Every structure is written in structure tokens, then in C-alpha cells.
Amino acid sequence: NDLLDNIHQVGECNYKGLINKLIHHVVSSYAKYAEKRALVAALLENLTNETDGGDDEKMQEAAMPLQYVYDGIRAFFIDVHELGMVEDNPKLWDSLADLLVHCLLRATFSWGEMNYLIPTKFLHSDDVWQMMVALFKRLKSEANAVALCCNGHFDILQKLFSATKTPERV
After folding, report:
1. How many CB atoms lie within 10 A of CB 19?
2. Fold of 2-169
């Protein structure tokens, strides 16, 4: 409970920035921070899921609403665009895809919620296409990802294909 109390003390206005900084840190190096991406996904799961209080206790409220995770990831997309981070880190989308796969496999959020992670203005950008390609490549290597993938990826793919069908994307 001390961890949850400390997290509440940080203040709601800082959650988005905290998540954004966590993501920046773990995607900054593809090879160096692979294990940390899995740990961040576990942290996000623990912070956003309700917990069982024990035998006689009722469910405890999540320490942090999932909306803050969405906001932090969206802020990361904006930073990537504004700061031109892909030029400095060509494996950036692979690293982000790795983090998102860990979150999906841990049920931190579902495929249906992926739509909330990507800012609307970037939904049809080449950056999002690269991230989705990296995400599906990474999912291919997971044993239990077939059901996960089949249950939810059509929504986001339909949105990606509906806006622009350039020759290189068809």
C-alpha cells in the first residue's frame, strides 16, 4: 500500500508526464532496455487494474486510471513527431511495439483500446504504419498472440486503410 500511497501523492497532473518519461526511457535503446520494457508493462498493469483486497475485503480501486496511460502514450507520439526522434533512433518503433505487445499480453489494455493510444492527427502517418508493422512482427513471435491479434486488429487496420490507399500501402 505504501507504493500506491506514494503514487497518489505524485498528483494527477503528473501522471501523463510520468508515463511519457517512462516510455521515452525504455524505447531509447532497443537492445539495452528490452527487459525494462517488460517491467514497465507489468508496472502499468499493476497501476491500472483493480486489486483483490484479500479474503474479507472488497476490490480496491486502481491506483491510476487507464486514461493516464493513453495520455502518456499519445504524448509520446507527439514528441516523436515534434522532436524528429526517429532520425536519432531508427529502432524506435520496434521498441515501442515491444512495449505495447507486453501491455497487450498482460491485458493492460486491449486491441480495441489501441485506437485511444494514437492521436487522431497521426493515425494515417507513415510513423504509425511503421509502428504497426513493428507491432505485428513482434506479435508473430508470441505464442498466445494469435487469438489476441485476431480478436482486435481489424479495427485499427480498417481505420488505417480507409483514409489513404497510396500505392506503397496497398
Report:
1. 24
2. 1.25.40
Rounded to the nearest 5 percent, the helix, strand and coil shares of the chain are: 70, 0, 25
Question: Taking the complete model, does pTM exceed 0.85, yes or no?
Answer: no
Name the maximum alpha-carbon separation found in the chain: 61
Q: How confident is the model at residue 145 (pLDDT cuts 50, 70, 90)?
A: low
* Residue of 169, 154, 153, 159 whose CA lies nearest to 100: 153
- Which three cell numbers mark 125? 502517418
Q: What single-letter amino acid sits at 170?
A: V
List all residues 6 or more positions away from 108 whose beta carbon is below 8 Å from its beta carbon.
41, 44, 45, 48, 49, 66, 69
| Digit-coded pLDDT (tens) for 82-129 | 888 888 888 899 999 999 999 988 888 888 788 788 888 888 888 888
Q: Are the C-beta atoms of 145 and 105 separated by less than 8 Å?
A: yes
Distance CA 157, CA 109 (A): 17
